[in-house]
Amino acid sequence: MRFxxxxxxxxxxxxxxxxxxxxVWHNYYKDIFSPEQIAYxxxxxxxxxxxxxxxxEGYIYYMLLVDDELAGYMCILTQSDYVYLARLYIKAEYRxxxxxxxxxxYMDAVFSNPDLGFFHINKIRLNVERDNSFAINVYEHxxxxxxxSEDRDIGGxxxxxxxxxxxxxxxxx
Length: 173
Prior knowledge:
The chain has a seven-stranded mixed sheet, sandwiched between helices. It has five helices and seven strands, in the order βαααβββαβαββ. The chain has helices spanning 11-28, 35-46, 48-56, 99-111, 133-141, and strands spanning 3-7, 60-66, 69-78, 82-90, 123-129, 145-155, 158-168. Strand 6 (145-155) and strand 7 form a beta hairpin. It has a single domain (3-168), classed as Aminopeptidase (3-Layer(aba) Sandwich). With 173 residues, the chain is α+β, with helices and mostly antiparallel strands.
C-alpha cells in the first residue's frame, strides 16, 4: 500500500473533499448526530463554499491517498504555538489500516523540520466529539491526551460537546 499526502489546490479537489465529507459523515456520524445536524454541519463546514472560505483564512487541506485513490483528507491551521488539526476523515473502507498514524507522521515530519521554520509549533491540537469513543481511542493510541471539555454553539440550534486533545510534535526518527 502506497500512502501519499497531497495539498488540495484545485476546484476538482475541493469537490472531491466535499464528496468525501458527505460519505464519511453520513456513514460515521449517524449514531452521534441527528440527520439535521449532519446536514447543517456539512453545509457550514464541508461544502465547496465553506472549504474555499476556510482556505482563504489559512486552513490547509490535504488529500490522503492510498495507491492514488482518495482515502480521506485532513485539514490544519497553524496557531501561535500549535497546529490545529481541524479535520481528519477517512473513508470506511480505509479505516483500521494505519492512515491516521501516517497522516500524523506526515505532520510530525513537516512541523519538526527546522528547514521549514516552524520553530514556534510544538503541539498538535484537535477537538473530538465526547460521544465519539472510537476516534477518542484512536487519538489516545496515537499519543493525544484530553486537555479539557468544551461545549461549542455552532449555530442552527446545535451544540458540539467536545474534548480538546493534544500531543507534542514528535521529532523525526
